């Protein structure tokens, strides 16, 4: 039911943005950014349960616990980058949005390097 409330809120905020755009474009950006931040905060409340579930799955396996942190950081990077890109696109700044998306992708590669190195080591051991 939470997702229905979020969707109703998003549609209401988009409607207010459309009306505000006719009178003043500055208010549209503020309303849009505030609505996105509120939705992000509402969704982040449920991340605690997801994170504990992921940790329990990793506890049951023999995998390194640092992989959990990499996964959680990666999810955070995805959410924050998506939020920033959406705000930039709402402002009509598609070039800035594209560069922000590129920065998010590079950050994901950087934090996943330890996992990639471990994967390469496993492949080496299997081949030898």
Kindly describe this structure.
The protein has 128 residues and is mainly alpha-helical. It folds into two domains: 45 residues; 83 residues. It contains five helices and no strands. The longest helix has 34 residues. It is elongated.
How far apart are the first and last residues' alpha carbons, in Å?
53 Å
Q: Which shape, going by the Cα principal axes?
A: elongated
Low-pLDDT runs: none
Q: How many domains make up the 3D coordinates?
A: 2
Helix content: over 70%
Number of helices: 5
Taking the sheet with the most strands, its summary is: none
Structural class: mainly alpha
Order of helices and strands: HHHHH
Count of extended strands: 0
* Beta-strand percentage range: under 5%
What's the alpha carbon Rg, rounded to whole Å? Answer: 19 Å
Average pLDDT for all residues: 83
Q: In short, what is this structure?
A:
With 128 residues, this protein is mainly α.
Q: What are the SSEs and their pairings?
A:
Blueprint: H1 2-23, H2 25-45, H3 47-60, H4 66-90, H5 94-127
Give me some keywords for this one.
mainly alpha, 5 helices, 128 residues
